[in-house]
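Thread amino acids onto this structure.
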């Protein structure tokens, strides 16, 4: 799997958000470039983890920023620009994923088809976590990604996914349980991480 930088500390401040988007809505290409520079890495990492493919993530990211340029006037400032942009990216990704219902064949996983549990010693912690994340359902993978990797607050996730904050909390709880079960199914014990 491709190694991608996961530093999520960059991003515009709330005041910068509104200013850049106002300028973009007036056709300011430099403001668009600045917003892109401040947010594209976070958007790419989110999409990559969501769709598990470099090309698809790049394609959706380009569509996302096209929508940002086209719809900047619609940004109301009720959230950070990054949250709004990630919401656009999420909608586009879900539309794209809906086109490709993936069905894995057990023969594609030789470790499972012959009943042999792979030796996990050579794998590092991050790789094990990535493999387990791929195995859990999309709604669980997405909620963990937003909360833990993108460090979004529950209210921000609530707004982005258009669900109540308590639902976010519940999904996080169940997603963590699902991830723990996936890791356990891979032969990873709590102390191995």
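Threaded sequence (193 positions):
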């Amino acid at each position: 799997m491709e190694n991608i930088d996961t530093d999520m500390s960059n991003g515009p401040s709330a005041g910068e958000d509104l200013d850049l988007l106002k300028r973009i809505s007036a056709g300011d290409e430099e403001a668009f470039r600045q917003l892109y520079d401040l947010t594209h890495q976070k958007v790419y990492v989110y999409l990559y983890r969501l769709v598990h493919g470099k090309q698809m993530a790049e394609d959706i990211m380009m569509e996302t920023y096209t929508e940002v340029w086209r719809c900047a006037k619609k940004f109301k400032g009720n959230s950070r620009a990054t949250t709004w942009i990630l919401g656009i990216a999420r909608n586009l990704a879900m539309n794209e994923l809906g086109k490709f219902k993936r069905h894995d064949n057990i023969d594609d996983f030789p470790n499972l088809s012959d009943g042999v549990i792979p030796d996990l010693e050579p794998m590092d912690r991050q790789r094990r976590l990535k493999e387990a994340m791929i195995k859990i359902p999309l709604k669980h993978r997405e909620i963990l990604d937003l909360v833990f990797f993108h460090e979004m607050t529950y209210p921000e996730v609530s707004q982005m996914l258009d669900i109540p904050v308590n639902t976010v909390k519940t999904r996080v709880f169940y997603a963590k349980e699902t991830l723990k079960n996936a890791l356990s199914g891979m032969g990873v014990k709590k102390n191995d991480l």
